[in-house]
Amino acid sequence: MVNHHIKVTQAILSSLTEGSRGMSGTAFPMQPNRALKLYEFEGSPFCRRVREVMTLLNLDYEVYPCPKGGEKYRSVVKKLGGKMQFPFFVDENTGDQLYESQQIIQHLFKHYSATGKTPSTYRYYPKLPFVAFAGTLINGARGVWVNKAIKQREAPAELLQLWGFESSPFTRIVRALLTELELPFVFNNVAKERWQDMGLASFRLKPGPYHAIKAGKRAKIIELMGRPTQDIQVPYLVDPNTNVALFESAEIVKYLEQQYGTPE
């Protein structure tokens, strides 16, 4: 448990390096019919840029972890795109396959934002992502390398489902482990839709009962989670392969390690 507290502290500091990016997003996302697919790894600064924009647009997407030393999906990227570079983004709705983080970001705003234009704050990034790289180091470089201590297994029959948002430190811990175990999953974004959403589920900046925007994405997710307090808590993991559903990051980590991280 002490080790988990250390991970939480590091994840919080890592999130702070990027400020508010990867926290807030629209309540009414333009989710495409066919799943967006992102081949990436948690510790990559360039992948983090893309994930931040996905949260801003509140888009759900499939994640195929490609940690360094991984064998499951890195070869898929090479086969599809011709080179092993990350992130690698596949949009079957438009037929596009993109490598460069800046091109992916422009694509996302063009097709899945209300204006179709990339905001100036997301239009240009430093060539070298020093800030995001610092965040990776602060986080102990978790989610960079494959966990070689386990025997390689086939991916589960059904994708795991994870609810969270990019800058959530507790979600970051779970995503890092999923990357290291090369477990593919659907990331369901639960961006904060307005200032009343700010704060932990147990303590909001706005006093009194919590109410999500009517018909917004959070309102629908509250119903899905079956939260009696009518609030949102992340991370939330559902494993359709075992019918397990968990909220607490420590419990999720324990479950993933036991279910998918123990050598056969």
From TrEMBL:
InterPro entries: Glutathione_S-Trfase, Glutathione_S-Trfase_N, Thioredoxin-like_sf
Top-level taxon of origin: Bacteria
Pfam family, one: GST_N_3
Residue intervals of the GST N-terminal domain: 34-116, 158-264
Protein name, entry field: Glutathione S-transferase N-terminal domain-containing protein
